[in-house]
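Protein Record: Sequence and Backbone Structure Tokens
======================================================
Tokens: labelled as protein backbone structure tokens, with as many entries as the chain has residues.
Task: work out the structure tokens from the sequence, keeping to the layout shown below.
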Amino acid sequence: MGSIGATAAPTRFDENVCPQAAEDPLFGLMAAYKRDSFDKKVDLGIGAYRDNNAKPWVLPVVKKADDLLREDPNLNHEYLPIAGLVDFTNAAQKLILGPESPAIKDGRATSFQTISGTGAVHLGALFLSKFSKQKPTVYLSNPTWANHHQIFSNVGLQIKTYPYFDKKTKGLDFNGMMAAIKEAPSNSVIVLHPCAHNPTGVDPTEDQWKQIAALMKERDLFPFLDCAYQGFATGSLSQDNFAIRYFVEQGFELCTSQSFAKNFGLYGERAGVFHWVVAPAPGAQDAVKRLASQLAILQRSEISNPPAYGARIASKVLNDPKLFAEWEEDLRTMSGRIIEMRKAVKAELEKLDTPGNWDHITSQIGMFSFTGLTEPQVKAMQEKHHVYMTKNGRISMAGLNTGNVQYFAKAVDDVVRNV
């Protein structure tokens, strides 16, 4: 008898239905950096904080919370509830909406612990896809975090973009953004970055946020606020959540995703929260309970319940006034070092008299900066100078330090002059 395997295909999912996917560009960049044996190589690709010695930094307050957890005789490894660790989600809700938020006072908010900010965006996208009366179009900034496109398209939502980054000024294309929002059909979802826009580092001013909110209210649009950097951007938790607090105060129904990867350094622990706020109206509390019941079904079907460790760490800090104050100091340390690196890069480029205006390096904010380097220049940075950055010219400022900032600036000067 002949073998069945002799004539059968190895899989029914042939290349016509399941073609080879391209490698994720960011993780491919990480792999290339690790293979490079050059002693002065510089990693400016991955969005993770590094200290002045280019090493991962475990926040001192996280170490303290970890010690407290390990010393707790009642610690166990039982499942968390579907919605997550309640002490954590309640504290996270106050952190992002503000402790005096009218949404919290009125019982109009519900919160679910998620697999970091990515899981929070996905949970919101899935809910919008399943329960909207008509599937809305989702508007993303151009550019935005690359994963936004995959998350929303994977749940069957149509994506459009609105102008955001002005290549000439290397700042915000506010007029273009507002014009696109004005043309968006009612009920469209507008995805906004409340602080430290990824990848540009360009944020609206408070006055611009107010204008955006007014136009969105006029056009009956739904805000989806993706917040990955609260406290990490400016060092001020209340400054970094201004946009979210303002939209809630204006009476919007909205959702927001919250990550604790950057501001706690809990990258691998995947601690995040998804929040939904219903509008202030009769029956709001009943409405939010109904929505929460469906979010629980979606969460149950995908992850059953979220991981405990990162949430426990964050919860210890968020609910202890002394540890919270220490965390705020850690936030100022991280944000302050990044701000100093921005100043240092600009100073070095000006010292070298590098062609062009480099004011955007210090006017942009947060972990990332859009340098303005072209794709060929980025390629030369990697091949000639062993400096690794995404092909659109975005760099992680946290990858710079007093030991490599001068080398980086000289590399930029070289490619700007010669490529």
Observations:
- The mean pLDDT is 93.
